[in-house]
Amino acid sequence: MFKTVQEAVFFIKELKLVVKDVKEVEIVVAPPFTAVHAVAEAARNTNIGVAAQNLYWEASGAFTGEVSGPMIKEAGAEYVIIGHSERRRLFGETDATVNRKVVAALAAGLTSIVCVGETLEERERERRSPCSIGRSRTASTASAAATSPSWWWHTSRSGRSAPAGTRRRRRPAKRMHTSASVCASGLAPMPPTAAT
Question: Mean pLDDT of all residues in the chain?
């Protein structure tokens, strides 16, 4: 939950100037849903894509507080983040619910950014859990996979620079297979990195 509508639009106006000549990677921002439409308008005719931070797997119905794929598409987003570590940790999302969301996103014509990652405990043991492996299999049906290590976003261990391979690697435009990327939602301030 970073940025009001006004703050998000201001951020896009500044970002446009910084990234206007970038062509080798896709640049995608994920504002809060309240700002998706305004950010999409501010990013129109630029090289900046817009993502929603989540979606619900049903297209409509009595699901108070949820946002559907068609709603996201109409608001102007082309992408949606699914399975972010925060959603898994705080809201109990599972591989099964992530899969349902991926199917819904594809049906709505959205590009899914499916997050996979490890907990701090898994990182310290330097091994992947069956849960992480399951997430990787789920992600293979989407158009992009993103690392979302919960230890990175939720501990002081992140330091000032991102671990190798977890930031600023985007899939090339129009490619429809999985690749490593970062799942940084909410237009949160990004820590400086050595590899910009």
Answer: 74
Q: Which residue has the higher pLDDT, 127 or 83?
A: 83
Q: Is the pLDDT of residue 136 over 50?
A: no
Q: Locate 2 and state its tokens.
A: 């970073």
CB atoms within 10 A of CB 134: 17
Alpha carbons 194 and 182: distance in angstroms, whole number: 15
- Looking at domain 5-158, its CATH class is alpha beta
Domain ranges of the chain: 5-158
| H-assigned helices in the chain | 5-19, 33-42, 69-75, 85-91, 95-107, 120-125, 130-139, 150-154
- How many beta carbons lie within 10 A of that of residue 196, not counting itself? 7
